[in-house]
Structures are given as C-alpha cells and as structure tokens.
Write a structure and sequence with these properties.
Blueprint (H helix, E strand, L loop, with lengths): L1 H15 L2 H7 L1 H29 L5 E6 L10 H4 L10 H7 L5 E16 L2 E10 L3 H4 L5 E4 L4 H5 L4 E4 L1 H8 L8 E4 L2 E9 L4 E2 L2 E2 L3 E5 H8 L7 E6 L5 H15 L10 E5 H44 L1 H9 L4 H40 L10 H27 L3 H4 L2
Parallel strand pairs: 3-10, 5-7
Antiparallel strand pairs: 1-11, 1-12, 2-3, 2-6, 2-11, 4-7, 6-7, 8-9
C-alpha cells in the first residue's frame, strides 16, 4: 500500500513542478465534470419535484380521462384536439364506479373559461365544473369562508360558485365575497364559498380556479352533455391496482369496448403516473449525461498530449530510473498515476465549481417558490469523479507505455 501511495506522491510532485501546463491541460476535464454534475443534479431534482407534485394528489387516486381509440395506446384527449371529439364519458360512469368494492368515492370534472364580472370589475376566469365529492377526492380543496356545493346543487345546474383565492382578491379585494353575486357569461351566480390559497402544481395555479356545478358548466357554458374526466379514490392504497382493473372492466362494459385498442378512456393511477414520468426524466437525464460525457474525450486527449510531452522532456529521468533497476511496470504505473492525479485534480475543481453554482441556483429556486427543496445527491459527485478518473486511466495508458519502452542507454546519452 505504501508503494502505491509513494507512486502517487511522486506523480503529484512531478505535476506541481509544471503547474501552469497542468492547469491548462485540465480545463476540458473541468468543464466536462461540471456538465455531468449539473445534468445529474438537475435530473434528480426534476424527478423529486415530479414525485412530490404527484404525491399531493394522494397515492390512492385514480384518474380516468377520455382517449381516442387507437392502436397507439399513448394517444389521449390532448392529442385528439382538432381531430376527434370524445363525448362518451359521463357523470353516470362515475356513479357506476362508486358501486365498486375497491372504490371509496368519485368526482367528475370539466374545465372551461368565461368572463366573470362583479361591480364593474371583470376577469377572465378559469372554471372547473365539479360535484359535491371534489373535496373528498382532492384533499387540497380547503375553504377559507363559506361552504362547498351540495349534491342537489351539483346535479341541478344551480348557479353557485366557489371562488379561488386569487379570483376573490381580484374581484373583491378585502371585502367579504360570500353571499355576493357575480355574473358568469351573462348569468348571475351566488358566491357560496372562497378557497384557501393553494399555490401551483406543475405550473398550474389552483388559486385562479373557481368551482361551479359540472351541470352548469357543461350544459350552459360549454354546451356539451359529457365530462372531461373522473377521479376516484381507492378504499386503501393497497387496493389501487385492483381498483384500476375494476374501473377498466366496468367502463369497457358501459362503453362497449372490447379491449385496449377500442377504449375511449384512459385509466391512470398516481403511482403509474409517477413511474411513467420518472422513467421519462431518467431516460432524458441518461441521454444528457452521455452527451456531456463525450466532452470528457476532449479533455482526455488534452491530458494525453500533456503526458506525451512530459515523457519526451523526462527521457533522461526515465533512463536513469531504469538504469537504477526500475521495471517497466514501475515506469508505466508512475505515468498512469500522474494522468489519474491530473484527472482527479480536475474533478475536484469541477465538482467544487458546479456545487457552488448549483447551491446558489437551488437556494434561489426555493426562495422564489419554484420548488420546495433542492438537493445535490452524493451519486452526482461519485459519478463525476468516476468519469474523470476513468478518462485519466484510459488516456494515460498510451503515454505510460511509451515511457516504459524507453531505452535507458539512448535516453541517457
């Protein structure tokens, strides 16, 4: 062990003797290490953000959305815009799903926009048509004042509205909104509740949403007789997989579907969404790491050139060592050690610079409320240092072999 430690000390001393050239040679590796660090850390934090955002919906949630029947199972409602209008999902589907033993509760939903007016103040409002079960399915719905809609109101196109925090502030300011009346698309609605501030999920600000009965939104504002989605809660988190199967079976019977390619709906649990998005982030991160690693080659070539120059300049030293009994393996090991020391020195600089940059950026992101937490995982440091060390070994082999082949007699002339 002491022998190898001594080899590394000799290598480090040799490199410090020409520190300027060493520093110039490692710039490529430094940039590469920084790129790898940044890609890994950002990928890890994007995945963390996605998982935390989806977890807000609960691990026992299942989402049912419309989908264009297709051999491509990935086509959903968003891709169908402008091509096919799916109008088969209804509130009756939700009521049928509630009868399943694995389903605890369900709620329906559709989204639309309309101008909301109060006392001369006007706002283009985002409306979410739902029913009385929404707060039981979405735990993020909490009331600051008033109440939520009742079952009879949801089913009978009642003109009642629950305002989001931002909507209430824009239209009413500090005044109480409950009991007041606003006009939505020319129709008078009574404010029965105001929601607590909730913030954003995936960039979607829930404080800009106002809830009205789904019957009023679909029939009077959107002029349709169907809904856009259903959300159900499984009895327990352990029942989610069975509930997904049960929901799919019931909807296939109700929609006369014979299989996945004929389904006009898509059933996704929170866990499935987390896995899918996590896999996408992981794949993209892996691709970016691979691209960033290519720059390691450029840095490695710089190290190899420096080591070849060093071999030529130190032929006398190499010859003397061999004349005094040094074996080819000793010479080869010394020059590989020098190459690795250069690479690790570059890694230390790159990791330090990228950590400072990421720490500053992460703190700013947390302070601005873009994310709840920001972390620099240990694996980012290990992988970055590993890539750098590997480059040092790979690109140090050829110069080390050239040094080991040196004829001591010719070298000392």
């Amino acid at each position: 062990m002491f022998y190898y430690f001594k080899i590394f000390l000799i290598a480090a001393k040799s490199l410090m003797d020409d520190f300027g050239r060493t520093l110039l040679s490692i710039l490529g590796i430094v940039v590469s290490v920084m790129a790898i660090m940044i890609v890994i850390v950002l990928g890890d934090n994007v995945d963390l953000y996605i998982q935390s955002q989806l977890s807000a919906f609960g691990t026992d949630s299942i989402q049912i959305e419309v989908k264009v029947p297709s051999d491509d199972l990935g086509i959903n409602a968003g891709h169908a815009v402008g091509r096919t209008q799916i109008d088969t999902l209804t509130a009756q589907d939700a009521r049928a799903l509630e009868k399943l033993p694995t389903v605890k509760v369900s709620t329906v939903g559709s989204i639309g926009q309309a101008r909301m007016v109060y006392d001369g103040e006007s706002k283009q409002a985002l409306l979410l048509g739902s029913d009385h079960n929404a707060p039981f399915v979405d735990s993020g719905i909490t009331l600051a004042n008033g109440r939520f809609m009742r079952s009879a109101e949801a089913e009978s196109k009642s003109h009642v509205v629950i305002l989001g925090a931002n909507v209430k502030e824009d239209l009413f300011g500090l005044r109480s909104a409950v009991g007041e009346r606003v006009r939505i698309k020319g129709t008078t609605y009574r404010v029965i509740g105001v929601l607590e501030e909730r913030g954003s999920l995936f960039g979607f600000n829930y404080d800009d949403i106002s809830y009205i009965p789904y019957t009023a939104l679909t029939e009077e504002i959107l002029s349709v007789d169907h809904i856009q989605y259903i959300t159900v809660k499984a009895v327990t988190s352990g029942d989610v997989d069975r509930a997904v199967g049960d929901v799919t079976s019931v909807l296939r019977v109700r929609h006369d579907s014979t299989g996945p390619t004929k389904d006009d709906f898509q059933v996704t649990s929170t866990a499935q969404a987390q896995d899918l998005l996590g896999n996408i982030v992981g794949t993209v991160s892996l691709l970016l790491i691979a691209l960033a690693s290519v720059s390691i080659i450029v840095g490695g070539v710089g190290i190899m050139n420096m080591m070849l120059m060093s071999v030529e300049e130190r032929r006398g030293e190499i010859g003397l060592r061999k004349a005094l009994g040094a074996h080819r393996g000793d010479i080869q090991l010394q020059f590989i050690a020098e190459s690795v020391v250069i690479a690790l020195f570059a890694a230390v600089i790159g990791i330090a610079l990228s950590t400072l940059l990421l720490w500053f950026a992460g703190n700013q992101a947390v302070a601005q409320g873009f994310v709840d937490a920001f972390r620099i995982p240990l694996r980012a440091v290990i992988l970055s240092a590993g890539f750098s060390a590997a480059a040092g070994i790979i690109f140090g082999v050829y110069p080390a072999r050239q040094a080991a082949k040196t004829n001591p007699v010719e070298a000392m002339r």
